[in-house]
Design a protein that fits this description.
mainly alpha; rod-shaped; Anti-sigma factor NepR domain-containing protein; NepR
Length: about 60
């Protein structure tokens, strides 16, 4: 690799339309969707009564 660093060479191996890059992007998207789903479900849950009682004792 004359005149280029190893990092530059690695970038050259994975072109913009490479299947590996697309797989990685798809995986990241599916992980992101899964995390958003779990987060949204958590926000919809009721606060447990025991926890509310403990919070009430702080007043």
């Amino acid at each position: 690799m004359s005149g280029t660093s190893k990092a530059d060479g690695r970038r050259d191996n994975a072109g913009a339309g490479s299947p590996d890059k697309k797989k990685r992007k798809d995986k990241q998207g599916s992980v992101g969707r899964a995390l958003r789903t779990v987060y949204d479900e958590t926000l919809r849950e009721d606060v447990p009564k025991d926890f509310l009682d403990l919070l009430g004792k702080l007043d």
